[in-house]
Amino acid sequence: MFKFEREQKIFDIGGVKVGGQPGQHSTLMIGSIFYHKHKIVKDEKKGEFDKEKAEELLKIEEEISEKTGNKRMIDICSSWPQAFEKYIDFVANVTDAPLSIDGATAEARISGAQYVGEVGLSERAVYNSISPHIKEEEISAIKEAKIKSAILLTLNTKNPTVSGRLQVLDELLTIAQKAGIENFLIDTTVFDLPDPGPVSKAIYLVKEKYGLPAGAGTHNAVDRWKERRKLDQTQYLVASSVANVFPIALGADFILYGPIENAANAYFYCALADAYVAYCAMQEFGTRPLIREHPLFRIFR
Fold it and tell me: 5 lies in a domain?
């Protein structure tokens, strides 16, 4: 295990803390709801969905979060601006977790940002995401909504390498600050199927150089893999587990683990990785968890 020489930022987003040295905080788990083709959604354009089933999924995840000690953020997905209000209202009322405003288009994201600003949810909102290709109207919408937290996507299509990801980060930070963002969550971006390796190394380097919370949606590398259709359920679970745990070993502060239905498995293996990291950091550096509900104390009771 290791300890970063640079001071590590810890941000408080809607009462949930993320960041710090390995072993200080649990990995923040970010699961998606109302995503494209989610079975509980009846009409994506109108934002009609099975409220009973949606609440059940959110409550199950809440129980799992309490059991493992991993904090959570709800990734609210929407392809249509008019649907976002209904999704945001529902999740905000059912949970007290931070809300990731994850629109499939700039129009949808702007709509989501404007709405959280109007109804006073800006402190709980995380704009997902700011990329180097963001348009001026999005930047203005974020600022006007007084959203202070955002995921910064290190999308470098010209140089999709570890160094390429870091090359765009200064630009992203400048853009985010222009939008009024104060809490930066750096997503080191999955491009290709074997990318959990480079993504994890980039997470380490972001924390080493900038001291900012970093993570990724490494499950995407598995879900885009055509060969996964030939895997049985156990093999698929192992593949997803390895993809999501690998970044934690290199310092990841958050993981976008995919559909909220995957919570039971994702929380367990990420919490186990958190416990291993924390125990090693405590032995080697005297770094103790900053929260009593850390997975180290929940997994090994």
Answer: no
